[in-house]
TrEMBL record:
<feature type="transmembrane region" description="Helical">
    <location>
        <begin position="175"/>
        <end position="196"/>
    </location>
</feature>
<feature type="transmembrane region" description="Helical">
    <location>
        <begin position="208"/>
        <end position="231"/>
    </location>
</feature>
<keyword id="KW-1133">Transmembrane helix</keyword>
<feature type="transmembrane region" description="Helical">
    <location>
        <begin position="320"/>
        <end position="339"/>
    </location>
</feature>
<feature type="transmembrane region" description="Helical">
    <location>
        <begin position="129"/>
        <end position="154"/>
    </location>
</feature>
<feature type="transmembrane region" description="Helical">
    <location>
        <begin position="45"/>
        <end position="68"/>
    </location>
</feature>
<feature type="transmembrane region" description="Helical">
    <location>
        <begin position="351"/>
        <end position="372"/>
    </location>
</feature>
<keyword id="KW-0812">Transmembrane</keyword>
<protein>
    <submittedName>
        <fullName>Quinol:cytochrome c oxidoreductase quinone-binding subunit 2</fullName>
    </submittedName>
</protein>
<feature type="transmembrane region" description="Helical">
    <location>
        <begin position="89"/>
        <end position="109"/>
    </location>
</feature>
<keyword id="KW-0472">Membrane</keyword>
<feature type="transmembrane region" description="Helical">
    <location>
        <begin position="252"/>
        <end position="272"/>
    </location>
</feature>
<feature type="transmembrane region" description="Helical">
    <location>
        <begin position="292"/>
        <end position="311"/>
    </location>
</feature>
<feature type="transmembrane region" description="Helical">
    <location>
        <begin position="21"/>
        <end position="39"/>
    </location>
</feature>
């Protein structure tokens, strides 16, 4: 099949001020959140953790997506791949934003209190893993691995653009094979560390898959919104077509079902077993006002997207796809809030302004980093040998 003629400008406009605007919003948001540290010390760290977990999930899902496409020699995603490549390439910078969590471990994690461990046999049994030193070491290891993989995937893809060396595809596949395996382990343990260990007595054997399912669903919503933004700015309008949106919508629909299956499986097994130390986690999150958040994200990230995207025509309807994508990302944030906040506000739901400012702050920095790097190279991998097939979307 012959390659369609590309008539678009493939370079993001260098004179666009979106990067500066996003960084400005991000800095203001973080400064406002920083003020909250002196007003409500513990609330600051919990609000920050919610936002950090949200944007980290998008970056990590991007890394997995890129490696999966290389490993499976996927063609449909080639024209879209530079977006997740760019997101995951910034993991080495994003890793710096875990520092406030490390500094706030004593506020976030009950198992960092020696007096609590001394009087709790369960925490004593988990102490070889749940201790401050090992926690910090693990975070360094996680981000070192993710940063290496993310930057390598991006760097070699850009190098292929410049040299046309198709042999780099083999190198990327060979990196992606063990990379996905290592990624799966580190992502699971990171989810245990950041979120599950907030309640150190509680555990779920599929919590890592649960966090992955949330993250991957959120990624496809993010990719759709970024493509729509580029089109709105008149970029790649003749390169990316409705066929690409359809493919992303199919993936979004599929991972909506996958998310629903995993989330319900986790709930059903704990509900059916009815073991007090397991059910208490859900009991705290289905009372005191938190139950309304649960109902919201149940409908917003599963029921409504499932129904809305069920038909073929809906998957290329821009209004439907845009609305569903925004709804899923809002629900993703709400669900992470629902997981984290009952540990702090266990007497009932309480929304702090720091949850909003920390999201705006980290979001501004996260997207600012994306567009800063996105400007530096072509918006699609122009020398990839599978690009021709990817562009033939009608």
């Amino acid at each position: 099949m012959s390659k369609p003629k590309i008539t678009d400008t493939l370079q993001f406009p260098a004179d666009s001020n979106i990067t500066q605007s996003l960084f400005g919003v991000g800095i203001v948001g973080l400064l406002a959140t920083g003020v909250g540290y002196f007003l409500e010390h513990d609330q600051f760290f919990f609000s920050y953790l919610v936002s950090f977990s949200f944007f980290s999930s998008i970056a990590l899902a991007s890394l997995f997506f890129v490696m999966l496409q290389h490993l499976t020699r996927s063609e449909w995603s080639t024209a879209l791949r530079r977006i997740p490549e760019t997101i995951s390439s910034n993991l080495w910078i994003w890793g710096l934003f875990i520092i406030p969590i490390l500094l706030g471990m004593h506020s976030l994690y009950h198992w960092t209190h020696p007096e609590a461990v001394a009087h709790d046999p369960v925490l004593q049994g988990k102490q070889p893993y749940l201790n401050s030193t090992f926690f910090i070491i693990r975070q360094v290891i996680y981000f070192a691995i993710w940063s290496f993989l993310g930057y390598r995937m991006y760097q070699k893809s850009v190098e292929m653009d410049k040299t046309g060396n198709w042999g780099l595809q083999t190198l990327l596949r060979r990196t992606s094979g063990p990379g996905i395996f290592i990624f799966a382990i580190t992502l699971a343990f990171a989810s245990f560390d950041w979120l599950m260990s907030l309640d150190p007595h509680w555990y779920s054997t599929i919590f890592g898959v649960y966090y992955f399912a949330m993250s991957f669903q959120g990624l496809f919503a993010t990719l759709i919104l970024i493509v729509m933004y580029l089109w709105k700015k008149g970029l790649l309008t003749n390169t990316l077509e409705d066929g690409h949106i359809y493919d992303l919508s199919v993936q979004l629909f599929g991972f909506t079902v996958f998310y629903g299956y995993i989330a319900f499986s986790q709930f059903l097994l704990i509900y059916y077993a009815n073991i007090p130390e397991e059910t208490v986690w859900y009991l705290e999150r289905l009372s005191g006002g938190y139950e309304y958040l649960a109902y919201f994200y149940l409908f917003a990230r599963f029921v409504i997207p499932f129904i809305a995207l069920l038909s073929k025509g809906a998957k290329t309807n821009h209004k439907i796809v845009n609305t569903v994508s925004v709804l899923i990302l809002v629900a993703h944030l709400v669900e992470l809030y629902w997981i984290v906040m009952p540990v702090l506000n266990h007497h009932g739901f309480h929304l702090s302004w720091m949850t909003i400012t920390s999201f705006i702050g980290l979001g501004g920095i996260f997207m600012g980093l994306f567009f800063y790097r996105f400007k530096q190279n072509k918006m699609i991998p122009v020398k990839d040998p599978t690009l021709a097939e990817s562009l033939n979307k009608h």
